[in-house]
Input
Amino acid sequence: MKRFRWLPMPVHSVLLFVVWLLLNNTVAPGHLVLGAFLALTIPLLCAPLQTPQPIVHRPLLALRYMLLVLWDIVIANIEVAILVLGPMRKLQPAFVAVPLDIKSDLPQTVLASTVSLTPGTVSAELSEDGLWLYVHALHLTDEQALIETIKSRYEAPLKEIFAC
Output
């Protein structure tokens, strides 16, 4: 879509205009003028605040990734329920440093969110250099297996989705 300098976000402008008219429940000339003014001014003021985001190069793979994460959430919920209902002294919580291959902010955020969404693991911190993701696991028996699972199951598809 071609962008004009005076209309940096045309879809947002149209939505702002329509929402303004719907909220006021009128098409009076004053509201049309004020709605048009707001629809043009707000995107102009917000445009410099935008940061470029990576493009999703493989949307079908992204859909497959979402289904995989949903499946993992269901399975992890069952596993965590079994762990929590059992004796607490058998739990072995631990922190793990996962080395990252992806460098962009959005894919790193998606990866950290995915790890946190999966019950039993929480993303604790991303290192300042962006090379390590620190993960807390509720019950950890094999550190290397957890690292390989995160890298192969989550990070590798994200690298393909965002082509990074």
